[in-house]
Specification:
With 208 residues, the chain is mainly α. Helices cover 80% and strands 0% of the residues.
């Protein structure tokens, strides 16, 4: 089941990018930034791989990825701004955002202000839901857009660059082929463990 889920997710991402081009990258990154679990760690490296084949430009891939982040983050920002804490507390568990984590994010905003958005965009996991507390704090919208883009662009560029380099090496390194196949089992175990943890997290949240 986990293998099928992984294959389906990868197929959806590669299909969207293959069919829609740059627009597919922007769409997928918008979904990820709207707090929907769709990992940029798969989206951007695959886009980078397509850079290695000559289909895309690395700078354009990073830029449209960051634009997608802004689009999705805007939706999350508005949810936080107009739905407030009750909305986030009710639905936050579905994106693994607990009330305690929300408290920490609000305190961080109170202490460091708008720079929180820029820094968080450079970090895995937290980058996907930082827009919610930004909206709740009513961070100035123009500054929110600017910091989101400036923080997202290096993230998108770095992941796409990794995909580019792996793509360049793929056809020239049998050792890389063997290493990737050897990691298949590890990846499946990690995905299964993550699915179990996610399910337990939702169950505990509902019980609370």
């Amino acid at each position: 089941m986990t293998a099928a889920l992984m294959t389906g997710l990868a197929g959806f991402i590669t299909g969207a990018i293959g069919s829609l081009g740059y627009g597919g990258i922007a769409l997928l990154m918008a979904i990820e930034s709207a707090c929907i679990p769709l990992p940029s760690e798969i989206i951007m490296p695959f886009a980078g791989y397509l850079v290695s084949t000559g289909q895309f430009s690395l700078l354009m891939v990073a830029t449209v990825g960051a634009i997608g982040c802004n689009i999705g983050s805007t939706l999350a920002y508005l949810a936080g701004a107009y739905g407030g804490r009750p909305l986030v507390e009710r639905w936050g568990r579905y994106v693994l955002l607990s009330p305690a984590e929300l408290d920490r994010a609000e305190k961080y905003f109170a202490r460091y202000g708008s720079a929180t958005v820029f820094v968080a965009r450079l970090l895995p996991v937290v980058r996907t839901f930082i827009s919610l507390p930004a909206g709740m704090a009513r961070m100035p919208f123009g500054r929110f857009q600017l910091y989101t883009f400036l923080g997202s662009w290096p993230w998108c560029f770095a992941l796409a660059y990794v995909g580019l380099k792996l793509g360049e090496a793929w056809n020239h390194s049998p050792a890389l082929h063997r290493a990737m196949h050897a990691l298949d089992g590890v990846v499946l175990i990690a995905l299964l463990a993550g699915a179990v943890w996610y399910g337990r997290h939702l169950w505990k949240s509902r019980s609370a």
